[in-house]
Amino acid sequence: MIHRIAAEDLILQRSASQLDDSCSIASSFTLQDRVEAIQQSSEEFHEMVKKEMREKGIDRSQAMDLVRLQRLIDVCDTKENTALYLLQDWNYEPQVCRFLRLLCSSGVNLKDVVDFLHNTPLHIAATKNFISLAKFLIDSYPYMLMAINGQSELPVETAIRHSQDDVAAFLIRRMDHRRVRNLFKAKKERKAAISLVKLTEEFRMQKTILAVLDCLISPRWPHPPCLPSDIVPCLSWEHLHDKPTHFHVTYDILESDVNGRFPDDPDYEYTPKSFYYNLTKHFQQDLNKEILNHVVIKLLTERKWEKYAAFWFRVRFVNYLVFLVALSASFMSAATSDDPLDYKSAPGRKSLEILLSLMTFWFIIDEISELKREPLAYVKDYFNYLDLSGYFLIAATFVFRYPGGDAQWIFGSLAIMINFVGIFKYSVGDRYIGLYIKCLGMVIYKDIPRFLVVFTIILLAFSISFYIALKAGDHDLGRQVDALGSEFALCKNGVGCVMLAGLKTWLEGSSVVRSLPTAGYSWLGALLAIFFMMSVVIILLNVLIAQLSLTYEMVQEESLLSFSVLRMQSVATIEWQSRFKYWNLRKKYYVPGEIKSREEVEEMMKQYRESTNPTSPTAYEKWHVQEPSKVHVFYEGPIEHKNLFTPVLKETGSLRH
């Protein structure tokens, strides 16, 4: 069904205060006048359309636009007022673009069209997120890109202030990258026009963030030597290479504080939550592959990791190893002694338990600090509950040791198991082990629960039906239940014994009964046993193995992204812990930028292009139904308005989407 747009839908409704504003063009006529200007149901309108078609030889749609536009001009008095009215009050972008093109072709100069706040047409387009209109205005009036309004704002600043992500990203890509970086830099006593820290705090303008990251890489071309002609002639420009030899990667605005000041500035605020910290926090909820795999982010993470994060991460890892050694030695010593409270026979155990208690208390304090830093993210992370349970189980073991009993050994056994599992959180230190652990965890998370659901349904159905079917062959249920393959001492005459036998069939691949003929089962019981073994051993187990292999292939890319996020999280955590004025790792190792070779950047760009724009569907895409992907369109305008990084990456992939 074709959706027809009514005349009232094309007009932006205004409040009473706005309509009463004498400075507004819309206050010069009523809503009825506006509706009549574009109404096409009257006979007069169709006659005027036919007349335009005959006189100018144009098609019907163009003639209708001319008639509508002429009606608007009659209502607004002048063409300039009509243009301003379309920009302010029209909410159908394609029609606004068509009407403004017609006005420009009739002699209207849009550079003279401003509202009472001195907003240019590009400012108004940025406010309303009109990308097509912004493209038309920049093509026709390039100076508008750097024009300011009455509030001394550029169009891109207006777009960001109104949270218009699409048009803000478009305008940034049309600006020179040096001007873009200046927007996020503080100048002497003045704060930065735009705070990159605040921009990433809510993480709503992801396209804008990606466009800003694109502006942080600048190509460097070699310059020919210019020596006296009697020594060696100057090289011709024709002999210069088209490709740059190096790239300069800028980090300064990424390390800026909330005011746009850099770490080497005396007025720099030692804020713990930087641009990098905010990105890491949001990546835990939304894996934006375009930003996460961006060349600048990967280079910055690699530099931070190599300079200081890797060292402090290893210190934390060694600290946890000492904790596990003390935990194991203390509990094993207590388990081998006749009286766990007798410290005279083993004096070293008392020192171990004191060390273990202090380290456990330190880890609990660290968890409380994490909870205070990011309470919502901490509560949503299930692994934090695992860590806390391990620490509190250690405390419970010491508490229940004094009254005696078996509770201390139960808590101690669980504490050993859970705290040893906690060492996997340090797997991010090694790339290969970390990726393997992430893949293994995702495979277990994705496939095992689904398998257990199906297996549980089949096991329950078989256990109950098989137990009832035993009555058909022999009324002595005890003798028949004893003939099951289950040898558990806890299994008494009941349906639980049948379930344990079925569980053993899955784990060991053995028969659910020892012998069908000697057990005296009826034909129904034998049929149910055969059906159960066929369903579990032959079908479910083989399907599980195949599904595990397929899932392992599918989650490799997702595991790589998760591993990158975990490494960024480790770096951000270490930076947050060194947030003090006299111990600040971000300030100590700060550099404004660094030079990278063309080969290194090309290799990273190739990986970036493959990760964000895959050429062939992956196994996961073949297995699951895919949603329609979004097509990102960008405009290739004049070279003076492009990002300088764009034209030099035609062979290695562009950062623009």
TrEMBL record:
InterPro entries: Ankyrin_rpt-contain_sf, Ion_trans_dom, TRPV
Entry's Gene Ontology BP terms: calcium ion import across plasma membrane
Transmembrane regions listed in the UniProt entry: 317-334, 354-371, 383-403, 409-428, 448-470, 521-545
An example Gene Ontology molecular-function term: calcium channel activity
SUPFAM superfamilies: Ankyrin repeat
Membrane topology: Multi-pass membrane protein
Compartments, record wording: Membrane
Protein name: Ion transport domain-containing protein
